[in-house]
Amino acid sequence: MLVDGGEAVMIDTGMFGEMPFVRRLVRRLDLTPQSIKAILLTHGHLDHAGNLARLKEWTGAKIFGHPAEQAHVNGTYPYQGLNKWCGRLEALGRAVFNYRPAAIDEFLSDGQTLPFWGGLQVIHLPGHTAGHCGFFSERHGLLFSGDMFASYFFNVHKPPAILNSFPEQFTASAEKIHLLNPRWIIPCHYDFMNGGLHRRRFARLYGIENWPMPS
Q1: CA gyration radius for the chain?
Q2: Per-residue confidence at 215, pLDDT binned at 50, 70, 90?
Q3: Cβ burial, residue 183 (10 Å; 0-12/13-18/19+)
Q4: Helix (H, G, I), strand (E, B) or coil at 26
Q5: For residue 122, what pLDDT is reported?
Q6: Is 148 exposed, middle or buried (0-12, 13-18, 19+ CB in 10 A)?
Q7: For helices 52-59 and 19-28, what crossing angle results, to 10°?
Q8: Rounded distance between C-alpha atoms, residue 54 and residue 107, angstroms
Q9: N or C: which end of the chain has fewer CB within 10 A?
Q10: Is residue 17 helix, strand or coil?
Q11: Contact, 61 vs 41, CB < 8 A?
């Protein structure tokens, strides 16, 4: 949740069962459901879109996502090859958790600037999915990198192969982040809220050497 004054936006919505944590956080920050003005979707996998319909109903906020992600949100994406296991796991999760899809209200495009949190630039980073996106705050020098990688002290890694629809595009997406050169990186899956630490881990994982910090 990115808070700016009395307004906020959510990046992704988590799995089923996490809505009570969201409600508690909203109360703790002295916000209301209507304070949340947008839901920004990095991609449509179940662990990111699991509460999409519930959060939209609770807040009235619009959902922003890449058009290629609507099929994932709907549970109709045609997984192929090894990636079919991702589809099977998601189908099981949707059945167990009584998942409900939601329509993306506004489609995102690469380079677009959204009027939230002082301006968030959409960075299209395909690989994990076709429409996978990150969000870059120039004001804070901070990139929310979605599932480009997971960053834990015991294991820094790309998403497992069964979860990646277009793995051949990871290299180009990583180079895009390299050229963007954010000061801080926050992935969706991490251990500590430390953007510099995750930037260094990202660089090691993708073989980026001598990556200067932006001035």
Answers
A1: 17
A2: confident
A3: middle
A4: helix
A5: 98
A6: buried
A7: 30
A8: 20
A9: C
A10: coil
A11: no
Q: What is the pLDDT of residues 165-200, one digit of tens each?
A: 999 999 999 999 999 999 999 999 999 999 999 999
Residue 7 backbone phi and psi in degrees, to 5: -120, 160
Q: Judge whether residue 17 has pLDDT over 90.
A: no
Identify residue 114 by its one-letter amino acid code: L
Task: Give 197's strand partners.
Answer: none
User: Which pLDDT tens digit goes with each residue over 56-74?
Assistant: 999 999 999 999 999 999 9
| 3 state DSSP class of 111 | coil
- At 43, list the tokens: 């991609």
* Contact call for residues 122 and 172 (beta carbons, < 8 A): no
User: How much is the pTM?
Assistant: 0.97
Nearest residue to 8 (alpha-carbon basis) of 88, 85, 117, 112: 117
Residue 32 corresponds to which tokens in the numbers above?
């209301």
Check residue 115 and report its DSSP letter: S
Question: Which residues are paired to 178 by β-bridges?
Answer: none
Residue type (1 letter), 201: R
**150 bridge partner residues:** 157, 189
Task: Give whole-number Cα distances, 93 to 67, 75, 99, 152, 208, in Å.
Answer: 23, 11, 8, 24, 36
Helices (H), 76-194: 84-96, 170-180
